[in-house]
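Weekly sync, protein design subgroup
Attendees: M.S., D.O., the rotation student, P.L. (late)

Item 1: inverse folding check
M.S. brought a backbone from last month's batch and wanted to see whether the design step gives back something sensible before we order anything. D.O. pointed out we never logged the input encoding, so this time it goes straight into the notes. Structure tokens as presented (485 positions):
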């Protein structure tokens, strides 16, 4: 099918040695079944169906969807709250669900400096917070002094409040914490030499309390109205009510009392927990996202490509060669995308598909001498690829994965695709070519890995490679965090 589309025809007069190689390749093509194509297509369809069934379909469109409702907040009053989420024109789940499933998302794969700074800033404010207790003790909430009403409540701040406990003979300087105190927690108990530190952001979650009904401690004998809630995709944590947390599609922590006691990025990313809660390490998203799709339409595009282009190439090259090119090109494309578009949740085998398109060019170059009109075939292929790259200039389509997948697929195709030799010297030249292009690819991949993990780059103008602002709002940067008004 690929040959018909690009109008490839062999010359009438071909050397018998070359003709024999062509016939052997044709026999090989008709005897092998494209098992990898069938397998990857089945997996894509199955996962897409399960994803849509389990996570549903987000609002369909190209803009942002707003939901406004009156929600009970942590101060015991109802407030109008607006939740904003990006629409999905692929007819599939929202971005948060895709991240939870394994989308390419840099903050889940490495320690992102922006996310790390946001978390540390929150901890710094929390360290100076205290429990704000209403005068009738009907409710209490961990807040800063500015957020605690001086007329309707008491800000129980240590060491100024008489309830302040001692630590090594000195009054504690930080606290109090609503519904948590080292004097009444039994597990883990604050006893020497394992006393809880003065810094409340280093306190553990108390799992068992002293069973007494009243402690005469104002920050304990009150009804707590807010607990930690992880909102958005950048580890933002708020002490708030369960109702508000559910409305904002957050993760509510019933047992914790402070944001420093929860790992919000673990909630955001899902999958396997980080080995170190402070350092995201889900590097396997580079290949896991190749099996996911943003929606039903996205999956259908992949199926169409694989049952036409990929299937024909697998018959030519075999399942092992083509699977290596497909998967490794996709991983390389995702790695480049993670460098230049770190906060975009991307799924799908776009890099893999462009790596397969590169195979068509390499197969053309390898057969150039025996084709009747090679320039015509090259022009047709070039027009197709330019069109697809220009399509990547639209919003929500990742051109970095396309470009990197195509380049890596080009190098890998020279190394792995079967070739026709035109003599002994040409055969030796192509063997050297295999080694050279393998080394070039390894250099490319190593360079991208260094840029991602060791020397992260920030490129403002790079966004023009993936979206051209035809109008003022055509390429609006979308923030996956929920917006509050």
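Designed sequence read out in the meeting:
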């Amino acid at each position: 099918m690929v040959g018909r589309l690009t109008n490839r025809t062999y010359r009438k007069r071909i050397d018998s040695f070359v003709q024999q190689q062509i016939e052997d390749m044709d026999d090989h093509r008709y005897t092998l079944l494209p098992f990898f194509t069938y397998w990857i297509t089945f997996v894509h369809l199955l996962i897409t169906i399960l994803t849509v069934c389990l996570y549903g379909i987000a609002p369909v469109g190209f803009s942002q969807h707003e939901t406004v409702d009156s929600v009970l907040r942590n101060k015991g009053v109802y407030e109008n709250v607006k939740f904003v989420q990006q629409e999905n024109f692929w007819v599939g789940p929202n971005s948060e669900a895709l991240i939870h499933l394994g989308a390419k998302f840099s903050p889940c794969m490495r320690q992102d400096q922006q996310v790390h700074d946001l978390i540390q800033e929150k901890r710094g404010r929390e360290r100076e917070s205290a429990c704000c207790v209403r005068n009738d003790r009907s409710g209490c909430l961990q807040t800063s002094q500015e957020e605690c009403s001086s007329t309707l409540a008491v800000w129980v701040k240590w060491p100024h409040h008489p309830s302040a406990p001692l630590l090594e003979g000195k009054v504690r300087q930080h606290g109090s914490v609503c519904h948590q105190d080292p004097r009444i927690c039994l597990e883990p108990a604050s006893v020497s030499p394992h006393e809880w530190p003065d810094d409340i952001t280093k306190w553990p979650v108390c799992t068992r309390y002293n069973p007494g009904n009243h402690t005469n401690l104002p920050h304990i004998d009150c009804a707590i109205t807010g607990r930690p809630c992880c909102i958005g995709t950048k580890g933002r944590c708020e002490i708030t009510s369960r109702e508000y947390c559910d409305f904002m599609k957050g993760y509510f922590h019933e047992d914790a009392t402070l944001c420093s006691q929860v790992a919000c990025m673990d909630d955001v990313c899902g999958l396997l927990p980080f080995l170190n809660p402070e350092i995201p390490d889900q590097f396997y998203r580079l290949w896991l996202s190749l099996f996911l799709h943003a929606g039903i339409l996205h999956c259908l595009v992949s199926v169409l490509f694989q049952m036409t282009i990929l299937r024909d190439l697998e018959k030519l090259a075999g399942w092992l060669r083509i699977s290596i090119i497909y998967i490794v090109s996709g991983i390389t494309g995702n790695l480049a995308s993670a460098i230049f578009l770190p906060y975009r949740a991307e799924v799908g085998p776009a890099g893999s598909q462009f790596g397969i398109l590169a195979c068509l060019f390499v197969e053309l170059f390898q057969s150039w001498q025996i084709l009747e009109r090679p320039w015509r075939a090259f022009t047709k292929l070039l027009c197709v690829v330019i069109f697809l790259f220009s399509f990547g200039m639209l919003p929500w389509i990742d051109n970095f994965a396309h470009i990197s997948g195509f380049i890596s697929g080009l190098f890998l195709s020279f190394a792995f695709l079967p070739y026709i030799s035109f003599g002994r010297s040409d055969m030796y030249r192509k063997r050297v070519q295999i080694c050279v292009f393998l080394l070039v690819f390894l250099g490319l991949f190593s360079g991208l890995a260094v840029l991602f993990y060791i020397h992260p780059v920030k490129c403002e103008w790079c966004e023009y490679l993936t979206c051209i602002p035809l109008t003022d709002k055509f390429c609006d940067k979308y923030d996956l965090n929920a917006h509050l008004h």
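Discussion: The chain has two domains: 1-55+282-466, 110-275. The longest helix spans residues 424-453.
Action: P.L. to compare against the previous round before Friday.
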